[in-house]
Amino acid sequence: MMVRPARDTELEAIRKVHLAAFGDDERETVACLACELQSNTSDPRHLGLVAEEQAVIVGHVMFSPVSVEGDDRILGFILAPLAVSPPRQGAGIGTLLVTEGIRILSGSRANIVFVYGDPAYYGRFGFRRETAEGFTPPHPLTYPDGWLALRTNDARPLPDAAGISCVPPLDRPELW
Fold first, then answer.
1. I need a labelling partner for 72 at 20 to 30 A (CA). Which of 45, 87, 152, 176 fits?
2. In angstroms, rounded to a whole number, what is the distance separating the alpha carbons of residues 68 and 119?
3. Angle of CA points 84, 30, 22, to nearest 5°
4. Is 153 exposed, middle or buried (0-12, 13-18, 19+ CB in 10 A)?
5. What is residue 88's predicted lDDT score, i.e. its pLDDT?
6. 0.90 exceeded by the pTM?
7. Superfamily of 2-169 according to CATH
8. Rounded to whole angstroms, how far apart are CA atoms 149 and 169?
9. Percentage of residues in the chain with pLDDT exceeding 70?
């Protein structure tokens, strides 16, 4: 198993992983989102990682930049989406992708990583509701308990409250 940066030339393989991993009600939306994010040319650049086994992509995760209102010195990211091929789910591939992404971002100048997901799953990595409190997501949340964050760098203090904005592919109310 190898975790490495995703390449823009791998969009079809990334799309297939997301199509397979998600249910009928969201598979197309998430697969398109993953490809749009992987192709996005934001500055700072996103971090896309794939898990590869025997030259086959079996997992993918995106960390996209977010802006924190009022302080352009704070560098944040949002983890979304994460997918693992169904036959390989439960083998620790999602954990490898998330921990490698956090490791890379922690070694950069990133201050905080957000995620909108299952607190039981993402809590294992240190994501907490308390850390996300005061940071207003770009759109109202369907599941407010899923708004979590993780500090990756304590060098710069974070504001008590601020809005965040995200890259255009994530800036769609139906995703929140």
1. 176
2. 22
3. 45
4. middle
5. 95
6. yes
7. Gcn5-related N-acetyltransferase (GNAT) (3.40.630.30)
8. 20
9. 99
Q: What are phi and psi of 146, to 5 degrees?
A: -90, 0
**Residue in the block written with tokens 């949002």:** 78
Q: CA–CA separation, 55 vs 47, rounded Å?
A: 20
What does DSSP assign to residue 125?
G
Which residue, 37, 57, 51, 46, is CA-closest to 4?
A: 51
Structure tokens that stand for 87 in this block: 């036959």
Mean pLDDT of 95-123: 96
Tokens of 99: 């921990």
Alpha carbon distance 103, 50 (integer Å):
15
Domain ranges within the chain, ordered by starting residue: 2-169
> In this structure, which amino acid lies at residue 142?
T
Q: Are strands 75-84 and 112-116 parallel, antiparallel or unpaired?
A: parallel
Return phi, psi of residue 110, to 5°: -65, 140
Single-letter residue type at 70: G
